[in-house]
Write a structure and sequence with these properties.
The chain is built from eleven helices and eleven strands. It has 343 residues and is α/β, with parallel strands linked by helices. The chain has an eight-stranded parallel barrel with strand order 1-4-5-6-7-8-9-10.
Amino acid sequence: MTTLRLADTEALPQVFALKQKIEKLSDKGYAFGHQDTTSYGVGWRHDQDAYTSDVYKVIGDFPLVYGFDIGQIEHGKDKNLDDVPFDAMCTLMRKAHKEGGIITISWHADNPVSKGDSWETTIAVKHILEGGSHFQVYKEWLKKVADFLLRLKDENGMLIPVAFRPFHEMNGAWFWWGNPNCSPEGYKALWLQTLQLLSVEFEVHNLLYVYAPNLVFTEAEYLLNYPGDHVVDMLGLDLYQHGTGKAFKKTLKTNVEVLKRVAETLKKPYALTEIGLDKVSESRWWSTILDDTVAEMGIAWVLLWRNDSENHFFVPYPDQLSANDFKTFSQKAHVLFLDDGKV
């Protein structure tokens, strides 16, 4: 499946290697991922003396895919929007990478026009495109993103490859870069400009670029904002359960089938780049809803969202309602955690 061309025409060899690694995952099954898994969990936050995860506390292994978010880096802040210090984030990324984990980064950027957060939907995209009133602001923000990405080096000084998922869920109305706050044409222009600035202007060459809409029902919906084969390396999809398990399972099946058809046509690896049920209130969610629907569908990974507190979490912690089912799920040969991904 691997082509010799990536979105960044000067991508480093380790980025090609990451893409090949991602493609090979689906030969064995699919990888388990978790957002902020080593940064914090229910009742704890990372400190320098303890390296843990709620996933590890339940099953004795870590995820194979590690999600991080760099929201607030655009302001030069010390911590991200979820209070994770960027220095600590770099350390956690290095450790995960050294152990064979895959790093994926999202960016909940603030609204560059209104100065509100990502969810403040004042029209912004047309103003940050070249020639717009806030182009220079956006360019300065992106320089800070670039500086952070170029800090991500392993113990040998090699840049760590990252699956970068900017401006996700663009077909939803909740972000300033989403429809209808931004037209599909505007979104495509923003994607191309971001790629151009990062790779050419700021010489960031350690990224795979991941395009990831929210809930869709047709290929046309999925591709509405798609900026083009030559500027996307991987396809994603974000989907959360808000109603019954039965209804979600049906929706998930439809969405994964759409994603698979598009990805096979475009010959790109694909993943569920965000998924979950807040507070995991169904005791057998892992085996009867998630795995029963996505196994053998060719996806590279599922990334569960973060464990913030007992009131907002997506992966079980010890003794949580779904913890026993999660253990059963984790032991399935085709569900890949960190130890399964080591070669």
